[in-house]
Write a structure and sequence with these properties.
The complex is a heterodimer of chains A (420) and B (415). Chain A is an alpha/beta fold and 420 residues long. Helices cover 52% and strands 8% of the residues of chain A. Classes of the chains: A alpha/beta (420), B alpha/beta (415).
């Protein structure tokens, strides 16, 4: 009996394991720049004790949480502090409608679909100062922000026209969850992945159907819609894994983290059977190289100095090692590994007028590190970190997959892997 | 993934060992689960503070009097002397300025105002070499308004008992007052984050210069400099009296700073530091450990020639106990502990507790034992080791540092 109490009495989110040591507060990027936010210990386990007595104790300041999860990474006792905060927000948001602005920001795929149709117009219009002023004052989207440019051609359109036919010819196969960013804003990243995987003998396929992973929907309180889209995604991922025997690769750390870890913990979506088959492409490729199943050959004349930024969700997954080790294989790449600091954007958070200054203050530590690193470009696995770092430092930011594809000697790699 | 050495545990000991190996060109990966107990450190390292309840004057000289089961005896007093010098070098190479000697303890001041023997202390913290020759006669003890992690009255009493004249002076600035909005989070580390700009420090300095009166030294809580000592130096340049810091209740800025600097140096040497990941199991082949599996790299065991267990004691979950046994949870190596749970503890929290001395069993080369036999390529270092009691003996950080470098030497010297 006594033994069972010790081993089985586990609380949700490891809530009861908190020893109130305050170590989480020392790494919180929000508490570091504002006294409006009481820090993860107070917002998380401490506040939860009150909220369990009466939900009215919910503190609006919890909306300032970025959900970066750095508190969870630092916690010596394994408490899921950010999950406690997110769940409290979720309970408080029940029955409340999200604002038009939040709904618009959260629906990254809807926005993308509309903008794609009129990409040149949308890009020009969204970039104009009158438009920005209207968005700033009416929509409360900060005028300093520039929406990432929309592509004229969606990734899926390009793929169907130019790549789909050849994919069956390869000996091995994977599925690719491209996400909104690759589809609407930056198809090149998807093209780079196809180029890289084809060169080592892997055919790339789209899922039967995919929807936005919903990371922004969760952040903006649109839980019902997030759950709906999550179900569609997991159903289609399941088809790929069980029917087609294809693992599902991604090129965005936040989509990956969301589908693997937040679906079950935040949305109660059971993904246990496919969880391990959802992987970031760098992890998948690194493991193939490590197990000597494939070889990568890089260009002789490639020479660059870049800094690697570990996105917060990448650190939460503990996967930065895969991207870093893979990048270190490029002989001509001088890679500076930056100390992990939050860039401050946290998806849609930094786009909101009320968060803009805080967002930049949070990121300032990282921007300084990048400036000191004296590099020509930055590489990171997260697209929103990319926007923030590009806007704030002026340096170009690329996904590791694009860096690899750029440095790859495609012909030599194909030969080394026995592909015609 | 194959490395030369994988170290399980990213605290003081793991980092010291990692730096030592990486400096000699070894490819090292450290698996660190969460932040370490260094965030409870007051800015000093101790080699040996007490033997039989009496304060030790010369820690190196006192090692011979320790029982043979103590980790220092396994390293040997001669070797400890030379390793101790290398510890100082390791700190200065990492950009951490510490002073002290292994032949003569000095005194550090705890947040409660108690003087305790120490080996090395951060150069911006108050240290007393000789209790009969205090470094100042009259201290201005600057007390931050609304800051609860410095028990000022106790601290002042302790300092007066040592022979100082102490003026307790309350002060605040606009920057500090703003922080009082969330009083529960007004901690040393949040103060350190907000007291960084030249202007904010100038406002603190102005208060000190106005209020310190005729004291000949200004003492203030250690709430400066999260990443290096430059904030302190900037403040000192603005204050017209010598300035010293005194440890606060945790989380400790000094501990955080030391960890940041050590981690930074380790990475600079090419080391890999896996933050927020936990080693969960190992695979053995006879008397060798071949790989370690972590929670987040679950499908990619970390292979290495050598492994180091630096997981800390019970508080860091390097040791665990249930109702029947004390055990080492990652690799299941042997533990020195009483079999009878009745003997683990004694009534009275402040009484000496047997479990403080429990830990992983090792041979003379710090190799872990499994079912009584040494694992050839697995060494244990730091607080996870048996045979010492950091609370009673004041040897915690010393064991961490000295065994870390001794183990690194063993790894390098083996054929």
């Amino acid at each position: 009996m006594a033994e069972r109490m010790q081993t089985c009495n586990l609380s949700e989110h490891n809530f009861e394991q908190c020893t109130k040591c305050s170590i989480c507060t020392t790494v919180c990027p929000v508490a570091a720049v504002t006294t409006d936010y009481p820090g993860p210990k107070q917002a998380g386990p401490d506040g939860e004790r009150y909220r369990l007595k009466d939900p009215a104790y919910f503190d609006k300041a919890l909306k300032l949480c970025l959900n970066c999860k750095r508190c969870e990474v630092a916690c010596p006792s394994g408490v899921h502090i950010a999950d406690i905060i997110q769940h409290a927000r979720m309970r408080a948001a029940e029955g409340q409608r999200a604002t038009l602005r939040d709904t618009m920001l959260a629906n990254t795929d809807l926005l993308g679909k509309m903008a794609n149709l009129v990409a040149p117009v949308a890009n020009a219009t969204l970039g104009l100062s009158p438009t920005k002023l209207v968005m700033d004052s009416v929509m409360a989207i900060d005028k300093h922000r520039t929406f990432p440019a929309y592509s004229r051609q969606k990734f899926t359109t390009w793929f169907k026209r130019h790549a789909a036919k050849e994919q069956d010819a390869y000996a091995h196969h994977v599925s690719y969850f491209h996400g909104c960013y690759v589809n609407y804003n930056f198809p090149k990243l998807g093209q780079d992945l196809v180029k890289l995987l084809n060169a080592v003998g892997y055919g790339v396929h789209l899922l039967d159907k995919e929807q936005c992973c919903g990371v922004a929907l969760i952040a903006n309180g649109l839980y019902k819609q997030a759950r709906r889209q999550a179900r569609v995604n997991i159903d289609n991922i399941r088809k790929s894994v069980t029917r087609d025997k294809r693992v599902v690769l991604t090129t965005s750390s936040s989509c990956t983290f969301n589908m693997r870890d937040e679906y079950p913990s935040m949305l109660d979506i059971d993904n246990a059977d496919v969880h391990d088959s959802i992987s970031l492409a760098t992890r998948f490729i690194y493991r193939l190289v490590d197990e000597e199943k494939i070889k990568l050959v890089f260009k002789q004349d490639y020479k660059r100095r870049m800094a690697y930024h570990t996105a917060c969700h990448m650190q939460r997954m503990g996967w930065q090692l895969y991207s870093i080790m893979l990048l270190r294989m490029i002989p001509g790449l001088d890679l500076v590994e930056l100390e992990q600091e939050c860039c401050g954007i946290s998806g849609t958070y930094g786009f909101k007028k009320e968060n803009y200054e805080r967002s930049q203050a949070i990121g300032s530590v990282l921007f300084k590190l990048i400036e000191d690193a004296k590099v020509e470009a930055v590489t990171t696995d997260c697209e929103t970190c990319k926007w923030q770092i590009e806007m704030s430092t002026g340096l170009p930011v690329e996904n590791p997959i694009s860096v690899l594809a750029d440095a790859l000697d495609v012909e030599a790699t194909r030969r080394a892997n026995g592909i015609n | 993934m194959k490395m030369d050495t994988v170290i399980i545990g990213g605290g003081l000991s793991g980092l010291a060992c990692g730096i030592s190996l990486a400096k000699r060109g070894k490819r090292v990966t450290i698996v660190a689960s969460g932040q370490s107990t260094m965030l409870f450190n007051g800015g000093s390292m101790e080699m040996l503070g007490y033997v039989d309840g009496k304060a030790v004057e010369n820690p190196l000289g006192a090692i011979a009097s320790l029982p043979e089961s103590h980790p220092y005896r396994k390293i040997g007093a001669d070797r400890i002397a030379s390793i101790a010098e290398r510890v100082k070098l390791l700190f200065s190479d990492s950009g951490i300025e510490m002073t002290g000697s292994a032949n003569a303890n000095h005194w550090r001041i705890t947040p409660m105002g108690v003087a305790k023997p120490a080996w090395l202390t951060l150069s911006d913290h108050l240290r007393i070499d000789n209790l009969n020759q205090l470094p100042a006669k009259r201290l201005a003890l600057m007390c931050i308004r609304g800051y609860f992690d410095q028990p000022n009255a106790m601290l002042a009493k302790g300092l007066r008992d040592l022979g100082f004249e102490v003026d307790m002076i309350e002060f605040t600035t606009d920057d500090i007052t703003a922080l009082r909005r969330s009083p529960s989070e007004m901690r040393a580390t949040s103060l350190a984050k907000h007291l960084v700009s030249n202007n904010a420090l100038q406002r603190v300095a102005d208060q000190f210069n106005n209020l310190a009166g005729d004291a000949d030294m200004v003492l203030m809580p250690s709430v400066f400099g999260q990443s290096d000592s430059s904030d302190f130096q900037l403040l000192q340049s603005k204050v017209n009296k010598p300035l010293r810091l005194v440890a606060t209740l945790p989380p400790s800025v000094a501990g955080m700073r030391m960890m940041t600097q050590l981690r930074h140096y380790f990475k600079m040497l090419g080391g890999t530091y896996l933050t927020g990941d936990t080693a969960v199991s190992g695979t053995f082949d006879g008397d060798r450990l071949t790989s370690v599996t972590t929670a987040k790299l679950a499908d990619m065991p970390l292979k290495a020639d050598d492994f180091v267990l630096a997981t800390g004691s019970f508080v860091s979950r390097g040791l665990k106990a249930d109702f029947e046994r004390v055990y080492e949870p990652v690799l299941g190596v042997d533990v020195d502990a009483d079999a009878d749970p009745e003997k683990w503890t004694r009534f009275g929290v402040l009484e000496p507790q047997a479990y403080f001395g429990y830990g992983v069993a090792t041979d003379s080369q710090l190799r872990c034992l499994k079912q009584g036999k040494p694992i050839q390529n697995l060494r244990a270092i730091g607080s996870v080791l048996s045979g010492h009691d950091a609370v009673k003996m004041g040897d915690g950080t010393g064991v961490s540092l000295l065994t870390a470098i001794a183990a690194a030497d063993h790894i390098r010297e083996k054929k």
